[in-house]
Specification:
about 290 residues, alpha+beta, seven-stranded mixed β-barrel, three-stranded antiparallel β-sheet, 6 helices, about 20% helix, disordered N terminus
Length: about 290
């Protein structure tokens, strides 16, 4: 029908073809070409993919912050972990929310599940009212998502336009322990637990605000879950080269997680090379006339 666009629940197989109806339980992910100066997606559509939605969730809060000097354990450090929910929607651009920067971490967007606040306040004996949304430094607080179900490479369609892709679990540092009022030693527990948050990259830009619907794409189960990757990164005793290389090969993997895995694989390979031809101790020496000495 005239006037229908892919955003209305239709897609085109190729330029000039008849539109094909798609189920309301599908959400179109597209790759955009150079801007054509018009249309809902503000670009020339090169290719359409329809990805089945496996669940719907909701944004509870969004935030943005820039690094500021902060006294932590008697030392002044730069951190952007201190933040509050934004009263208005934020534009999530190619590298994350507008005016959002971090001094160390490289992920575009940090997300955290709203349910984790109940878990961790109970665990640490903290009054739930003391921790507002975004207290853990996240850009997105989302209701209902679990790291043990979410997989690297999975995509989240948020609001009318934005699409984000999961890249890795949060890789916490001492600033998180300081922020939640706990010793640094608690980080190993948080990493092993898996309820830690996760990074995403921006696939398509758009405004995101509290109350927006989050639609989650289906994902091949061969991709590692965020929770399992968190435990893998936090456990140096895991030295299976095949497993590490399989995770390293996942195309959506974030750069920080990639670097940590690549370093571990390099160490294992160096150790294996170093064991070839090395001295393994004294051996019995056999003399033709005297026998074994």
């Amino acid at each position: 029908p005239r006037g229908r666009t892919p955003g209305d629940g239709w897609r085109r197989r190729e330029t000039g073809s008849c539109p094909l109806p798609v189920s309301a339980r599908h959400y179109p992910f597209c790759r955009l070409g150079p801007s054509s100066g018009g249309g809902h997606f503000h670009g020339a559509i090169e290719q359409w993919q329809v990805v089945t939605v496996s669940g719907e969730y909701r944004v509870m809060a969004v935030s943005t912050a820039v690094p500021r000097p902060t006294m932590i354990h008697g030392h002044e450090v730069l951190t952007s972990i201190i933040r509050s929910p934004s009263p208005a929607p934020l534009l999530f651009g190619p590298t994350g929310p507008t005016d959002n920067r971090t001094p160390v971490h490289t992920g575009h967007v940090l997300a955290f599940s709203a349910q984790h606040y109940d878990h961790w306040t109970r665990r640490f004996g903290i009054n739930r009212s003391e921790w507002d949304w975004c207290y853990w430094g996240e850009n997105l607080t989302i209701d209902g998502l679990s790291e043990d179900a979410l997989r690297v490479g999975q995509r989240l369609a948020i609001g009318p336009d934005a699409i984000l892709e999961v890249t890795s679990p949060r890789i916490p540092c001492f600033k998180l322990a300081w922020r939640i009022g706990q010793p640094d030693s608690v980080l190993s527990e948080i990493i092993a637990d898996g309820r830690i948050g996760f990074y995403l990259r921006v696939v398509r830009t758009g405004l995101i605000g509290a109350g927006d619907t989050v639609r989650l794409s289906d994902m091949d189960e061969s991709s590692i879950t965020v929770g399992d990757l968190s435990r893998l990164l936090g456990d140096p005793s895991i030295e299976d080269p095949g497993l590490l290389r399989a995770v390293l090969a996942q195309p959506a993997l974030g750069s920080q997680a990639y670097g940590l895995l690549r370093k571990r694989i390099n160490l294992l390979e160096d150790r294996a090379r170093g064991s070839v031809g090395r001295w393994t101790g004294w051996r019995d020496w056999f003399h033709p006339s005297r026998g074994c000495l």
